[in-house]
Amino acid sequence: MSEENSGSGYVTSGEFTRDTNYIPDRITADGAGGWPVEAGRYRLVVARACPWANRAVIVRRLLGLEDVISMGMCGPTHDERSWTFDLDPGGRDPVLGYERLQEAFLARFPHYDRGITVPALVDVPTRQVVTNDFLQMTLDLSTEWTAYHRDGAPDLYPEALRDEMDEVMQRVYTEVNNGVYRCGFAGSQGAYDGAYDRLWTALDWLEERLSGQRYLMGGSITEADIRLFTTLARFDPVYHGHFKANRQKLTEMPALWAYARDLFQTPGFGDTIDFPQIKEHYYVVHADINPTQVIPQGPDTSNWLTPHGREELGGRPFGDGTPPGPPPEDERVPADHGPGGLGHR
Fold this sequence. Notes:
The chain has nine helices and six strands; from the N terminus they run E-E-E-H-E-H-E-E-H-H-H-H-H-H-H. By secondary structure, the protein is an alpha+beta fold. It has two domains: 6-148, Glutaredoxin; 159-324 and 332-337, Glutathione S-transferase Yfyf (Class Pi), Chain A, domain 2, CATH 1.20.1050.10. A four-stranded mixed beta sheet has the order 4-3-5-6. Strands 1-2 form a two-stranded antiparallel sheet. Helix 1 (51-63) links the parallel strand 3 (42-47) and strand 4 (70-74). The chain is globular, with a radius of gyration of 19 Å. Residues 158-285 form the GST C-terminal domain. InterPro entries: Glutathione-S-Trfase_C-like, Glutathione-S-Trfase_C_sf, Glutathione_S-Trfase, Glutathione_S-Trfase_N, GST_Omega-like_C, GST_Omega/GSH, Thioredoxin-like_sf.
């Protein structure tokens, strides 16, 4: 099952619990685990629809690793078996030659029976999956791949902030990133009510925290902001209605909405967001929640480009670093899939 399918978790007493049994392998600078950092060796397989994969796309881009780690792109929908490369000519990834991400998992683990999830890093020479541990993967891009970071790459996981960052990221993960799923896949009224209360308690905490500082950890962007951003970008188009997280829209929370727009308008963030793919994924794949598979036309996303005023809080988005350049031509989101675009695949 995909990470984006309710089958990647289980429901007990009506409560959704995510299956977090990922492949724990890591690609490290010293290669101690058998997977050494090496330019051109690995392929990052993602889907623009998936918030967990979206994180890896942003980190790779901010650090300037596009020429070091290639990227394969799955389409927005999948079946019960796997994400598929249906956006590529012939429906096959041009580097791996696979039709399904599942093939990379089975190449290494012939009897693999857990979630076929994105993001996944694949070893190109053997065409075998290395890891799908999305929580560790992006931290390793920041800390293990430093030899290949671009000039001016930001420090997304500053050593001095790590203890507090880890606590903030853990709360964001359990209460917000996963909290919206807990609402959406609740199997009873009681489970939903509890999930709803937990989610909004956390969003109120974030609203207050971000009222007085530009980013989650202060004056510069860190991994914590990336992890929150990918949920916020999907909130009004999907989670508010589809997952019944509907106390307020993101646009009705002043600090969070301004913060989300600030990030969206920062190079490396909004230019990774494909609103039509995001909506197509959730409303089509989650047929148990949306049996008709009808994809809503709204909301209007042109408001993501309106002024946010967060500059008044000071800070430097990239700290001592610089913004990334434009994305590679073949990795750009189509213009009609961006803010205000109405395109459907």
